[in-house]
Design brief:
alpha+beta; Alpha-Beta Plaits; four-stranded antiparallel beta sheet; 3 helices; about 30% strand; DUF1330; Dimeric_a/b-barrel
Length: about 100
Amino acid sequence: MPALWIAHVTVTDDAAYGRYAALAGPAIAKHGGAFIARGGRYVQLEGKERARNVVARFPSLEAAETCYRSPEYQKALDHARGASERELVIVEITD
């Protein structure tokens, strides 16, 4: 079953986070991920508001988790650590 990678982010260092984004996109694509929402308009209804919300669709929960743990994505994530506050969850799509 397909899965969604959902991230809620507050960027605290634009330059470092830009380096993360430049590396993360190709790593996500390599694992079959495709962005369906990235930093667009949103309405916060509950919980902590984050200015950047990202959703990527993957072929499976396993593919999304493999991407996260991959050396390519971890290299990208090194730039996001200390440059953002984030929450990330992977959710399997059900019918």
